[in-house]
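User: If you would, consider this record:
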Amino acid sequence: MRTRTTALATIAVLAATLTACSEPEQGKAERAAASTSSSAASSPASDTPTEAAEEKPDTELAVGDTFAYSDGLKAKVDSITTITKWGEYDSKPDGDQTPFRVTFTVTNGTKKPYDMDSFGFNAEGATTGGQTEFLYVEEGSKQAGGRIAAGRSATFTSEYSLAKSGGKEVLFTMSRSDDAWLESGSFLGDDPNWTGTIK
């Protein structure tokens, strides 16, 4: 009987370990006070901003929120804005498309320089769905690239267009593919994504 109980306990521990390993967490949300308050206001079931924030997964963020990766790297979407200025060679979309720019900041809280080429970005419509088109824009943009030194921050942009019929809500996702992240298995967790309205 004692052997059977020990075996069952061992199986339970292994099952819990496998469950934890199959759903790794990439990091935690650091929510801006304003977005937490607005979440609370829009959710009648929650009594406090803290309660509303706890109900939302760490990877589901609003513009202004920060995602703190488990290794010290941080990412924050600063704004989603309509593109109004164009350079001579920029790829301006058709009239039935809304051109927009996602501005985001990455802070390197690790002890080594971080290569921004290890990040991938994607935007899509969040109102009624809809694919976005990548835009080549030089005027006012700063494409992600190069390295960020340890302890430093840098701000970048990514430009897209979305069919006007798709509304103005956008879902922007960031994913990592650096060697350390892949080797640790952290990439198996949900990537952080930010939802916001094109201003």
Summary: The two ends are 67 Å apart (CA to CA). The chain has four helices and twelve strands. Residues 87 and 139 are 5 Å apart (CA to CA). The mean pLDDT is 83.
